[in-house]
Amino acid sequence: MLTVNQLNVTLDTLTLAKDMSFSLQPGKVNVIIGPNGTGKSTLLKTLFGDIKAQSGDIHFFDQTLTTKQLSAWRKLFGYMPQDIRLDIELSVLEVVLLGQLDALSLRLDDALIEQALSALDKIGLLHLANRSVNKLSGGQCQMILFAQALMRNPKILMLDEPVSALDLHFQHVLLDHLDEQTKQQGWVTLMVLHDLNLAAQYADNLLVLKDGQLVKSGDPKDILTPELIKEVYGVQAEISKDSHGLPFVRTIRRSRTEVNLSTDGKVTQLDKGIANAI
Amino acid sequence: MQSSGLLSDAISNQRRSEQRRWFVMSILFVVLITSFILDVATGPSLLNIKEVANALLHLIGFDTPVDPTTEVIVTNLRLPIAIMAVIVGGVLGVGGAEMQTLLNNPMASPYTLGMAAAAGFGAAMTLYVGSLGLNANVAVPLGAFVCCMLAAAFLFALATMQHISSGQLILAGIALLFLFQSLLSLVQFISSPELSQQILFWLFGSLSKASWSNLLIVGGVTLVCMVFLMKDAWKLTALRLGEERAKSLGVNVSRLRLKTLFIVALMTATVTSFVGIIGFIGIVAPNIAKILVGEDQRFFIPLSFLIGAFLLSSASVLSKVIVPGALFPIGIVTAIIGVPFFFWLILGKRR
């Protein structure tokens, strides 16, 4: 169990975590949602020990995050940062192998290569193994980096917007694989997503962040409401159930009739036809 | 079924690509040996290549007939210079390779970051101030070494600062380059014409001061540094994925950065203090190595060494044969053959 107690993080004058407390269970997919610049990536970096919290503590079972034992702490993690650029002259296989950095020696082990290849195989990218990563698309790079994170045999897996560059097919390949492995291996999985429908479909536990505060957390079925979305994003939404009974979010654009064209405040609402004509 | 076929294909492709890179390295090694033998064979008293080969074989224990004069020239004069060219070129190549890795920038090298200029200033200062009772052959390299390490220490201090980007480090290095160049000009400006001439000669870079005892120091430092670098080969490869990603893979980035910077500084300062300023190899050699074997540092480090060694060794040959009988300072020759090469490299990369 990953436990966060009374966490406070301030960078310069920006508060990115305020009295944040929560605990995450093994074998569960936890999804963080929230507006831009609200402290989602910062939270992941803090958990990884890359940003120092002003106060609060972080535990994984009986292990505690301290600066002294940082490298032991980081061994627990598979962590996939947001940046997906891979500007290096290496093969896909070599990039995936780096996930097992500590086990690599000057001569590559056949067993390790097989492990890396099977990680690629499971996400359907074995055919890219010998290609140079310089020549891949952004989405392909993202999948490769996912395979690299899996190579680490993590106890805690953190992914920062892992599907940002993926097409529909690979979004589901990645998330399905992640969900299945999380349950099978008993990982604590924590990822940031922007797509509320993907979050609703894959999250066992949803953490909603705004301005460094944990606004709400729990099963998406229970907590995802139009009021919450309005409060957090300032966007109107309708929520229905899909065929599996999971919440389906449909946001509503601001109507053109609400467009305020007046300067003196007299004409506040115009009909669509007039708005279009203007 | 199909995927297990793909799996074994992928393994054998990987092995084949490793073999290809070993092959590239062996070719470079052969080319280097050739240029090394030519380097020993050429000089003011043109020796017969066969006699040189015989003398070399004799030296490593073969029972070949050898002319005593040839043997003396080869062992005491030509061989130390030729070996020095190989080691110095190799060190400059590896130094550039690791600076480019650390700073994530193909323009970085100990030279462009002002370390060579600092060594030049150190040497000039020692020549100007006098050797303070020390033998000049010891004092000048020592002055160069100390100054070069000081410049490196400055970069070192910057690198330990939180949130400093590699771009800022490069800018700081370039600023150092200008600073030490100005200081160097200042020393030259205030010193007598004879001294100024002496400084100029040191700056040109020359292998002629190579001796077996120098070689022992340079070779020993290089060997130790190379072993340490190769031990971190995979970590350095990971670092090139970006700092954040390297951290996510468990690399202690700041420690690796400092350690590598120290190793590079030590190697560069050592060779520069004995041979003077030799530019371009630090930038050109790693870029060629990258094109040939990619950035897997297991191959990238040794190949950068081999290419750097070959470039300097062949420059040493050229410096002797351009005008027969005259010996051009090697620092001048490297830059002249380096520049067209560099242009070719830049334009070749443009797709």
UniProtKB/TrEMBL annotation, chain A:
It comes from the Bacteria. GO terms for molecular function: ATP binding; ATP hydrolysis activity. Keywords: ATP-binding, Nucleotide-binding, Transport. Residues 2-236 form the ABC transporter domain. CDD domains: ABC_Iron-Siderophores_B12_Hemin. SUPFAM superfamilies: P-loop containing nucleoside triphosphate hydrolases (SSF52540). Pfam families: ABC_tran. Belongs to the ABC transporter superfamily. This is Iron complex transport system ATP-binding protein. It comes from Marinomonas aquiplantarum.
TrEMBL record, chain B:
The keyword Cell membrane applies. Keywords: Cell membrane, Membrane, Transmembrane, Transmembrane helix, Transport. It is a multi-pass membrane protein. It is found in: Cell membrane. GO terms for molecular function: transmembrane transporter activity. GO terms for biological process: siderophore-iron import into cell. The keyword Signal does not apply. SUPFAM superfamilies: ABC transporter involved in vitamin B12 uptake, BtuC. GO terms for cellular component: plasma membrane. Gene3D superfamilies: ABC transporter involved in vitamin B12 uptake, BtuC. CDD domains: TM_ABC_iron-siderophores_like (cd06550). Pfam families: FecCD (PF01032). Belongs to the binding-protein-dependent transport system permease family. FecCD subfamily. This is Iron complex transport system permease protein. It comes from Marinomonas aquiplantarum.
